[in-house]
Amino acid sequence: MDPFEYFVVLQSLILGLGIAQLLTGAADVISNAKNTKLGLAHTLFVLVVFLMHLQEWWYSYQYIFEIKEWTSPLIMFLLVYPILLFLLARMLFPTGLRSHENDLEKYYYDQWKPMFVVMFLIVLMSLLQNVFISGFDWSSQIPQYAMMIVLFGFLGLNVKTKLAHKILQVLIFLAWLLAGVLDPLIIK
Known about the structure:
Mean pLDDT: 91
Number of helices: 7
Strand content: under 5%
Low-confidence stretches: none
Structural class: mainly alpha
């Protein structure tokens, strides 16, 4: 096995754990649909995080062409993104002490700040990996800059308005769909 294959195996395990968290949460919602209250912002956020997992899995195969020398620091740098994705997937559904909660809309509005901090870090890592690993120009990272500004704005202004969160999640979801249709490699 070459270093790329070792990396891909570990990365795929981490991404698989994140996808398992998302699918487990969705299965819990379906199996308890009568007692579960869904929310638009939360549902769209879950879908976007799922798409992010799939895109990272798909994009990582480009590294076989982009990276000539594999080192431990490089592998650790590349694993930060899927680890953050896993953390976000784990945070999206009530677990542990909160596992009895069935109001996912309330849960989202109670937990959006830590989730947005992790999402901000994910977008930052995307930008850094795109520039330093994939060789994209800093000026081509406009979607990442825009997302970081919006997330930072929501956090800094402590935006609690449900309508603002719904609009934000709809726009993020539409942006991911548009990016997936136009060019899956534009946004990471």
